[in-house]
Amino acid sequence: MHSIRVMLVDDNKRFQTLLSRYLDLQQDIEVVGKASNGKEAVSMFDELLPDVVLMDLAMPVMDGVTSMQKIKEAHPAAKVVVLTAHNTIDYKEQSKEAEADGYVLKSMSSSALISTIKKVISQPPHQILPD
To answer: Are 5 and 51 within 8 A, CB to CB?
Structure first.
């Protein structure tokens, strides 16, 4: 069975490490890369071509929305799930405009994140999931 190749993009190294460890415990998910800001994510995406990107929004150097737009410009079928602590209409609208494929709060259960990753993989691009 093919593993879902995931790239994590988050400036919080501790969160990134914990999430990476959790995802690596899943039989069908493989973390193939980690970026600390949007600029790193854009360049890493071209090298790694992950199945799904888990993208934080508030990051230094380049924010998640801008990064998502650049990735989607270069790779229209790319799947990006916003993974953020921000539960605001503003952030959700920006994510939708940037063609996010999913929106998950960091406070949600880890099983909800896994479920979202699997749903995003099986759906057409640009179909943002409801909360």
So the answer is: yes
Instruction: Specify whether the CB–CB gap between 64 and 97 falls below 8 A.
Output: no
Predicted TM-score (pTM) of the model is: 0.89
Our measurement of the distance from residue 123's CA atom to the centroid of its chain's CA atoms, rounded to an integer in Å, reads 15
125 Rama class: left (phi>0) / alpha (psi -120 to 50) / beta: beta
pLDDT digits (tens, 9 = 90+) for 103-131: 989 988 888 899 999 999 988 665 555 54
| Dihedral-angle region of residue 44 (phi above 0 means left; psi in -120 to 50 means alpha; beta otherwise) | alpha
Domains of the chain, earliest start first: 4-122 (3.40.50.2300)
